[in-house]
Fold this protein.
Amino acid sequence: MNTESMHAGEQDKIRSPKLIANSAAARLGMALAVGLLLAVSRANAAATVSTADQNFILAAAQGGMTEVKLGELASTNGKRDDVKEFGQLMVKDHTAINNDLKAVAAQKGVILPDSLDAKHQGIVDKMTALTGSEFDNAYIADMIKDHKADAKAFKGESAATQDAEIKIFLEKSIPVVEAHLKHVMAMPK
């Protein structure tokens, strides 16, 4: 073997690890680039939701969780059958609305709270302390006030938002909220 071919063989031995190293580095670089692209895409999805839309989603989540908690209370603590039945309706309907809202929030990258904030927990605590007719009257009054406010907020968001998925959620939810308001307003005070 001549020195030239020995030299070429040694260069090949040096090139092979370099090629392997470069190939591994290229794969790692591509994986990092794809990961970064996915992270940027997720961030852009969340960034496309306006602050007003995010605030609405978060407020609706708190309100929805409160409606379910109060509905559970009404179905057990209510004295009147119509109050108990309305409480059960609130649990059923607002659980469905909450699930729809969770899906929209997940699409938009908005992280929903898993518990009530202090304001909403205070409402639940206040209602928990009431019994009998006192509970029934306070619950009906609270449901009228809340559903009036919810109907107004949902309609306002529907008019203001440019987000198609949020509009679809609202188109489905507004009639339910309005039906609740009509129902509770017809209940004897």
User: Anything to note?
Assistant: The longest helix spans residues 3-47.
